Amino acid sequence: MGSISEFFQHLMNGLTLGGIYALIALGYTMVYGILKFINFAHGDILMVGSYIGLFTFNAIRGQQMGIWTIVAFFIAMIAGMLFSAVLGVLIERIAYKPLRRATRLAPLLSAIGVSFILSNTAAWAWGTKSRKLDYPFDNTPFTIGGVAITPHQILILVVVIIMMVSLKLFVDRSRIGKAMRATSLDQDTAKLMGIKADQIIAITFAIGSALAATAGFLIALEIKVYPSMGMMTGLKAFVAAVVGGIGNISGAMLGGILLGLLETFGVALLGIPYGMRDTIAFVALIIILLIKPEGLLGKVEKEKV
Amino acid sequence: MINFILLILIYTGIYALMAIGQNLITGYVGLLSLTQAGFFAIGSYVTAILSVTYGIDFWITVPIAGILAALFGVVIGLPTLRLSGDYLAIATLGFGEIVRNILNNWDSLTNGPMGIQRIPMITVFGMKISPYAKWGFLVVVWLFVLVAFVLFERLANSRMGRALEAVREDEIAASSMGINATRYKVWAFALGAGIAGVAGSLQSTFILSVTPGVFTFMVSIMVLCMVVLGGMGNFAAVILGAFIIQFISYFPQLVGLSNIIPPQFKQILFGLILVTMMIWRPQGILGRKTRGEPAIFKRRGGKK
Fold first, then answer.
1. Residue B128 β-bridge partners
2. A4-134+145-303: what fold?
3. What is the pTM (predicted TM-score) of this model?
């Protein structure tokens, strides 16, 4: 007990959990960066994406576990991503776009309404019982140097790293990414420079929603799929975005991983009871707001009159 | 039937108290708080624990419930209200969940998921106000609403009310006029929380038991809907909103269709109310009350 291998065990668990938070936090932070509002429906988009993934997987997986189930798993993941992306763009069009020039409160209230509509429609249509998503591969853990690693954790880490690297490249290097950064910096000026801001906002929602669906589908293997799954996960991911510095893409990644580590180590080493695990994130939020409200990587924004 | 209408009116009263608090926070200061359910829970449990475990009279537990809820409001408000309003929404959303989490897990104090039963009834001059005989309880609840309405209305027309509106319209301009924005915001938030705590006290002596399962996020959303539907910044309007939302809630039972209409429908409807009101009628049914005129039941355009 208390050995080095135990430390690495928690590190591994924390990293996978943190990777999931980071993927979800990216959606919050990208939307916040451009529209300056919290998309409360983000967690529920994650939930819908997970359901679609689950349905697709169960429809095409077949009986035998093998290469095909793994392929089917990725096809299902992509189906969930696409569906969520379209849903995210639709929600933006219907519920947020008319409110861009309204008071700050209006889109927030609208987003809460959307969140409530999504989670309750899901509960009505698909039932409140949680559904199990079967592992597409044999999930027996193997040990490396005393650290038990499940193939599921490897899958999460690989997918998360691929997603993050490609997103970072996309935002930093591509033309659309440049337009996204410009829109986030100053929407009106970006428009004057010929950037179609509406289109960029739609793309942002699509990417954020697809990332959330991926995260939801990945954790569905462990926590199952249920209509209110988006709420707590979404909340914590938002905390991760704030810890890293909201509006900052690298910050969301860092914040997510930090929060994952904090939760795992908090339960394992600091003796915080498992039932109170969800509280850790909010204590972290309060602390960061008290000492560094702009987040770890955020810039201090001066308010202009 | 008449009993059922009385039930709706009693719940309208209890929720109207919460909505009045929410209106001060959201309607006057323009802050999104998502945790009236949390303060409601705190108030309920204060009354339940004090009266069942320590045998303290209801009328003494009410102010304690209110003050304790307000103190929790200050604890959340102080770190978050110095910053932009968005953080309050998240912090309060988390707070509501944490309160439920603690109520569920702190067995020695709250008896966990089982909750606390056999809460004594309210007594007035040695007379028991039984919740089963509804009329008496209805009068008590609406007396509370009346007092809260008058107090909050006076408050909104005071120096503090004007300061709050100034902060909502333009925080920087308000600050440069010498208004301590954070202090006023924390005060408003604490008062809104306190009145929700009082509503909790009433609720626990109405159902005569408390369980953590009652205080879900849904309660906070209902209260928010009441304010948005009635009209932000208008205390009479949010009481009307409270009635409409409670009526919608109990409509399936009222017409005997609760077997046919699934419970999610009213919640989907609440979500739709929030979205559609924001897009087409952000000022609510009655609209914001403009200063210096008797605006009750007069339709008025709100701020675009």
1. B123
2. ABC transporter involved in vitamin B12 uptake, BtuC (1.10.3470)
3. 0.88
